[in-house]
Structure formats: C-alpha cells, structure tokens
Amino acid sequence: MYQVPIGVSARHIHLSEAHIAILFGSGYELTVLKELSQPGQFAATETVAVVGPKGRFDKVRILGPARGKTQLEVSQTDAFALGIAPPVRESGNIAGTPGIKVIGPAGEVDMPEGVIVAARHIHFHTSDAAKWGIADKQKLTVRVEGERALIFENVVARVSEQFALDMHIDTDEANAAGVKTGDTAVILK
Amino acid sequence: MYQVPIGVSARHIHLSEAHIAILFGSGYELTVLKELSQPGQFAATETVAVVGPKGRFDKVRILGPARGKTQLEVSQTDAFALGIAPPVRESGNIAGTPGIKVIGPAGEVDMPEGVIVAARHIHFHTSDAAKWGIADKQKLTVRVEGERALIFENVVARVSEQFALDMHIDTDEANAAGVKTGDTAVILK
C-alpha cells in the first residue's frame, strides 16, 4: 500500500521578480504567511486580484519564492467564472496558454500567457521514488477512499531531491473525491 | 461496454408549489426554457437568488415541474462560496440538511432545510437496467476517458419507467474528469 498525503491546491499565483516589482513596488519582498509541504515554498501574506473577461477574484494567494515566469493556477470552475479557457498543464509548461490581468497595490500587469489548470501530480523525494520503483514523469493511478471514492488516472509523478511526498490536486478534484488536505491517497500502479 | 451519456448538473433548485407562490406570486406557473433528458423535466425560464452566510448566487436556474419539497443542489465548490456545509445526498433525501434564503421577484423564503450536494447517479429506464442486469440503488463503478480520465465509485443506479439513460454528475465532478454534457462514460461493474 503506497500511501501518499493529499494537498489540495486552491487557486494561486507564482510571480516573477519583475512582476512583483510592478505589482508591489520596486525592491518589494514577499513575506511568509505559511510554509508549504514542498521545502522552501511558502504561501505569502500578499494577494493580488485577477480579472478575466467574465469575472474576477479579488484575493488570489501568492506562492513564493519568486519564479522565472508568472503563472496563475486555477480550477476549471474558476476558469469558467473568469471567462477563460486554460489547458490542463504541468507547472512551468505555459507556452500558448491564455493570459489575464493581475492587479496589485502598486500596479497592474497584463500577463500575455501563464494561466493553467494544474495537472494532478505527486511530488516524490528521490528516495521515495527509488523505494517504490517510480520514475519521474510516470503516469500513475491513484485511489481515494470515502463516500465519493474515486480513482484518478494520469497522475504525473514528479521526482526530485527537493521534493517531499505529497499529492497535489485542485479544488474541483478534491470536491469530486470528497477529500481535503491531510487525507490519504493510495497509489494503485 | 455499457456506455452511458453524461449530463453535467450545474447548481439548480426545485421549488414546491407553495414556494413558487411566495417567490413569484400566487398562482404563478413556471415557463419552459428547455426540456431536460428526463421525460417531463425542464429548465425553467425563471431563476432565483440564493443567499448564504458567506456568499450568494444571483441567477440559480429553477428546474420544473414543482416538487413536494424545495431542494437546492449545489457543488461543494458552491457550498464553500455560500458558507454552508450540505451533505452528499440522493435527491429527495433532505432530512437534517442545511437551509438557505431564497429570493424571487415577489418574495423571499427561508428554507429550513433542503440544500444538498447531489450524489452522482445514473438514471436507467427499466428496460436498460433489465438488459444490463442492474438493480435500483445498486452502487456502480464508472469510468470516463480522456486527459483527466478517472473512475467514479459509488455511482447510484436509479431505475424507473419514467427515466431515460443518463449519468448525472455535478460541475466539480465534471471538471475533475474533464468532461461535459454529451460525453460518454462506461460502466465497469
């Protein structure tokens, strides 16, 4: 039984240094609200607004630290509300994705691209992956128990020395399965 | 291969005759916007607002005809936005569920109970169920194909002479699976 803790990702944004400077002011540094499961990653105290053609979300959590490129991760439910059609993608793979307007206290950015629905995935530390015979990029099948029990196919394995064992699903997936952060999933194959 | 068409249920409300009279005026009759997959059921032209402790939805579609008891069906995503905690229930089983305020053009109703997250289910005409060896209330396991392929467990079979073959899932479930109305699911067992 390969058990994995579940982490549910609400909509959030990763910002580039350049966009932090525009949205919050030159030289601004994000402050840590809460450490996340992946080492070095944190939820920032700061939020931004994102504005699509059909709707907006006023308090979208920023996850730090700054990244090379700005990336907004939303659920499909969020995407319908915003009026945009982002693809399901792995984090970092944003070529050809839609953009959106981002508003901070010091300025606005029209992201030309970078909105995705994150592909469900499991972070494995290299040692976990070796022990369980799992390769980076492998597609896994993962079951969650309960009243809304279901089996997720196409769960991407992501293996790194920098990762801690955690399965990341979005709020649509968590709600469809009736699970929350801290619940447990089982890798079937 | 037991193939079933999928129907995605957005949030909607069924109203009692008494509540239609309060919300729209005495003697008011709902008008048909669109026939639904189940014989005699329709989406009404009319909508109502529903107001929870944390949020509201202004245009909630009414499904007709009138029922014995008013029932609001929302996704778990909707429930978080409204600030209420409805259970996953089969339609009609509303004892002990939360209520909500409903606002129409002619008046308001404080529903004492009746908000549910609908349990995923498949409507079978008696002849389909007989042919496939499926019993009313049976829990089925159902797979959907695609980029977000997944297998739903605990899908309730509902068998009646009044039903047409259709699998009903909510928007969280549809988004988690990457499917829309008109796509096809396969009953595995």
Automatic annotation (TrEMBL), chains A, B:
<comment type="similarity">
    <text>Belongs to the PduL family.</text>
</comment>
<keyword id="KW-0808">Transferase</keyword>
<comment type="function">
    <text>Involved in 1,2-propanediol (1,2-PD) degradation by catalyzing the conversion of propanoyl-CoA to propanoyl-phosphate.</text>
</comment>
<keyword id="KW-0862">Zinc</keyword>
<dbReference type="GO" id="GO:0016747">
    <property type="term" value="F:acyltransferase activity, transferring groups other than amino-acyl groups"/>
</dbReference>
<protein>
    <recommendedName>
        <fullName>Phosphate propanoyltransferase</fullName>
        <ecNumber>2.3.1.222</ecNumber>
    </recommendedName>
</protein>
<dbReference type="Pfam" id="PF06130">
    <property type="entry name" value="PTAC"/>
</dbReference>
<dbReference type="InterPro" id="IPR008300">
    <property type="entry name" value="PTAC"/>
</dbReference>
<keyword id="KW-0012">Acyltransferase</keyword>
<dbReference type="GO" id="GO:0046872">
    <property type="term" value="F:metal ion binding"/>
</dbReference>
<keyword id="KW-0479">Metal-binding</keyword>
<comment type="pathway">
    <text>Polyol metabolism; 1,2-propanediol degradation.</text>
</comment>
